[in-house]
Amino acid sequence: MEKTVSDIKRIAILGAESTGKTTLSRSLAMRYQSVWVPEYAREYMATHSQEYSAEEIVKMAKLQFAQEQEQLRKANRFLFVDTELIIAKVWCEDVFGACPRWISEQLQPTHYDLYLLTANDLPWVADPVRMNSQRRDYFFNWYKRELDQLGFDYAVINGRYEQRLLNAVKAIEKHFGES
Fold this sequence. Notes:
The protein is an alpha/beta fold. The protein is built from seven helices and five strands, in the order βαβααβααβαβα. It is about 50% helix and about 15% strand. A five-stranded parallel beta sheet has the order 2-3-1-4-5, sandwiched between helices. Strand 4, helix 6 (about 135-150) and strand 5 form a beta-alpha-beta unit. The longest helix is centred in the middle third of the chain and has 19 residues, at about 55-70.
């Protein structure tokens, strides 16, 4: 029987800055011989001004979603997504005091099968697009609150480096009943 896009389980990785989302996404894709979707906002912010608007965040979110749809066709069992709309929503609300309608309307329909919320137990690593080294707990708690309010299935992933990957694998296996 041939696999279809609807057979693919979508797993979103979210968390505060510098909590290993990209490394975890890449490592999980390798472990499960599948693909992952990098965070488009990092690419965008690296090539644009640090000044941005809510409309640009919507544009980044739409481009992220388009990349996700493209990778979904290439995925094997799981698609790992480094960052998704909850982060865009929180980002807008934190910076602009409100969330654009498109993001709010897309949150429920773009539901993932599982969210992996990365804990703040990795050391901060500075880079040109990161700006919230002192607010990681604040954002972690906000993301957790959003997941709870939306009723999405999630697991908090902690541990350093290899242990973090093993904890994510355990959460995936537990959620999907696999070993």
